[in-house]
């Protein structure tokens, strides 16, 4: 499915390049030529009859992409077999068709045609399967950073908000690379192309130990998911061997030996490949890359950057989902704030009604007082009627008081409701603040955990170095003990020879037996004894030297016998 989608991207550019009038349709004769070329580069048997039958309708007009897709899927893409064709040839064919229409290189020739085609392939690799093909700003920045990491100068790009087409992308790279040497850009684009499109995890020169001759030779190694190949040179033409990197394979570091440093090995079922890197950093990078290849092989993946692209897309989708959640939370908060404002407005209306009721009560009270005064003046003669009228007025006042008390109780209830709403809003704000604090604390803890894991890795690396140094010192001690035993044997031999020279055979004397000769070997004084001994007198120099030789010979013979009887700790080990 991934191979079909990758081929479809390149073929889409070839189809649109044949649409000279930008109408979305291509003539049938051009589609027949395109189909024939696709059959040739994809190594598929060409069936002209099927092509004629597919386009045998009465309509002689051009065909849209929707009309060409059924034939493309049935007779071309469904018959494609991975490994039977070269993907670069398909890309080169489609690039040749589309570049003539859309790509116009500038006068400075910052990008060669080969570099532009590789950037076009990288664009198609990173673009999503949505047509017309565009590249999101995050992927554009990622690709430019990958290219800039290989170059001495960083490529800068303008801030992008929307997706970018491949031709606009090539123009941006051309504009950013005018201040850089074209050869540097070509080398950087080629390396990124081999890494991302060619699935090259790592490549470089390493020293390899042979299996038969056991000599060390320098080879160009190329690591891909599932395989490790080595060649005579970096042009990758003369392949000397391929190692299957699968579940039966493992990699581990080795100690320095055979005058080689920074060694590691790749263990397989039937053999082990010993390799020497230029330095420890390169060795660690190769070990990490081989472990990545093992992981990809175990997961059934064929491309590391496909997995990285999927992760980046998931992160973008997660980021967009979080932005949508934040927008939804903001909308809900605004709705709550609107409800609160409505409640405040309602409360203001109630207060205004209360003020109006109080004003009306005051006016009514003034009117009632005036009426009462008038009644007192005019109804003095009608006392009974005045008393009844007064009783009626008192009853009316009581009703008014009850209504006023009811209004005041309603106002207090509304004020309590307003306070509770304010407390609920403050609690929600505090909850949001605590949530932000927890998120910041969680992020800080994650960063501290990553720093601790990095420090632990560095400590483990230092421990490995100390163990390697201790192993080399032990080997030097064993070699020094072996040389000391050889020197002791040589001293014994020369003591025997000197003893024979010091006792010549006179007339009538018998030759001393070998056991008597060996009984008094000559002792060679140590360096410390020679330095601490005072110089002998000239007149007795010869006699003293003879006495010292005899005494030292006896001592050395005893020491030699003791060495033969009691081996040292190094020999026992």
Structural summary, described in words:
The protein is α+β, with helices and mostly antiparallel strands and 573 residues long. 65% of the residues lie in helices and 8% in strands. It contains 16 helices and nine strands. The protein has helices at 2-18, 28-41, 48-54, 65-75, 87-102, 113-126, 137-150, 166-176, 182-196, 280-299, 304-378, 383-502, 514-519, 527-532, 541-565, 569-572; strands at 25-26, 63-64, 202-209, 216-224, 227-231, 239-244, 250-253, 263-267, 272-276. The strands form two sheets. Strands 6-5-4-3-9-8-7 form a seven-stranded antiparallel beta sheet, covered by helices on one side. A hairpin with a 4-residue loop joins strand 8 (263-267) and strand 9. Residues 545-562 have a biased composition (Low complexity). It comes from Cyprinus carpio carpio. InterPro entries: EF-hand-dom_pair (IPR011992), EF-hand_SWAP70_N (IPR057836), PH-like_dom_sf (IPR011993), PH_domain (IPR001849), PH_SWAP70 (IPR057837).
What is the topological layout?
Layout: H1 2-18, E1 25-26, H2 28-41, H3 48-54, E2 63-64, H4 65-75, H5 87-102, H6 113-126, H7 137-150, H8 166-176, H9 182-196, E3 202-209, E4 216-224, E5 227-231, E6 239-244, E7 250-253, E8 263-267, E9 272-276, H10 280-299, H11 304-378, H12 383-502, H13 514-519, H14 527-532, H15 541-565, H16 569-572
Antiparallel strand pairs: 1-2, 3-4, 3-9, 4-5, 5-6, 7-8, 8-9
Helix pairs in contact: 1-5, 6-8, 6-9, 7-9, 11-12, 12-15
């Amino acid at each position: 499915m991934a191979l079909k989608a990758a081929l479809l991207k390149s073929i889409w550019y070839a189809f649109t390049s044949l649409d000279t009038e930008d109408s979305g349709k291509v003539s049938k004769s051009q589609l027949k030529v395109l189909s024939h070329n696709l059959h040739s580069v994809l190594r598929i048997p060409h069936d002209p009859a099927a092509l004629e039958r597919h386009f045998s309708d009465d309509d002689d007009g051009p065909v849209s992409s929707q009309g060409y897709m059924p034939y493309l899927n049935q007779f071309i893409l469904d018959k494609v077999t991975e490994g039977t064709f070269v993907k670069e040839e398909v890309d080169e064919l489609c690039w040749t068709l589309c570049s003539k229409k859309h790509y116009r290189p500038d006068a400075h020739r910052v990008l060669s045609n080969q570099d532009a085609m590789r950037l076009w392939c990288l664009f198609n690799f990173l673009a999503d399967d949505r047509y017309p093909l565009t590249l999101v700003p995050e992927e554009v920045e990622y690709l430019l950073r990958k290219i800039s990491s290989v170059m001495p100068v960083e490529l800068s790009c303008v801030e992008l908000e929307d997706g970018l087409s491949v031709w606009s992308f090539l123009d941006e790279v051309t504009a950013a690379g005018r201040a850089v040497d074209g050869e540097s850009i070509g080398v950087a684009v080629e390396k990124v192309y081999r890494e991302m499109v060619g699935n090259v995890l790592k490549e470089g020169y390493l020293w390899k130990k042979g299996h038969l001759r056991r000599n060390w030779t320098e080879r160009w190694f190329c690591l891909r998911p599932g395989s490790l190949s080595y060649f005579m040179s970096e042009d990758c033409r003369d392949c000397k061997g391929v190692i299957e990197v699968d579940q039966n394979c493992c990699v581990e570091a080795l100690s320095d030996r055979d005058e080689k440093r920074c060694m590691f090995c790749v263990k397989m079922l039937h053999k082990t490949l010993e390799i020497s890197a230029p330095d420890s950093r390169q060795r660690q990078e190769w070990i990490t890359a081989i472990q990545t290849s093992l992981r990809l092989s175990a997961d059934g993946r064929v491309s590391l950057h496909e997995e990285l692209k999927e992760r980046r897309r998931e992160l973008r989708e997660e980021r967009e989902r979080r932005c949508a959640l934040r927008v939804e939370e903001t909308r809900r908060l605004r709705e709550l704030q609107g409800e609160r404002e409505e409640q405040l407005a309602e409360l203001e209306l109630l207060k205004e009604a209360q003020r109006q009721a109080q004003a009306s009560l005051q006016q009514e009270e003034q009117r009632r007082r005036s009426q009462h005064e008038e009644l007192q003046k005019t109804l003095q003669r009608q006392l009974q009627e005045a008393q009844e009228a007064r009783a009626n007025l008192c009853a009316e006042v009581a009703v008014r008081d009850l209504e006023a008390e009811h209004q005041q109780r309603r106002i207090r209830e509304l004020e309590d409701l307003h306070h509770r709403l304010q407390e609920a809003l403050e609690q929600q704000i505090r909850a949001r603040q605590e949530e932000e604090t927890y998120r910041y604390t969680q992020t800080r803890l994650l960063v501290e955990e990553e720093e601790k894991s990095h420090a632990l890795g560095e400590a483990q690396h230092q421990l490995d170095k100390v163990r390697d140094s201790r192993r080399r010192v032990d080997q030097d001690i064993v070699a020094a003990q072996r040389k000391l035993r050889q020197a002791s044997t040589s001293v014994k031999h020369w003591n025997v020879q000197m003893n024979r020279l010091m006792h010549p055979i006179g007339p009538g004397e018998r030759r001393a037996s070998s056991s008597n000769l060996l009984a008094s070997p000559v002792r060679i004084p140590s360096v410390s004894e020679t330095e601490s001994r005072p110089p002998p007198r000239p007149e007795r120099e010869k006699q003293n030297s003879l006495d010292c030789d005899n005494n030292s010979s006896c001592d050395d013979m005893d020491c030699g016998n003791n060495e033969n009887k009691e081996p040292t700790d190094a020999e026992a080990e």
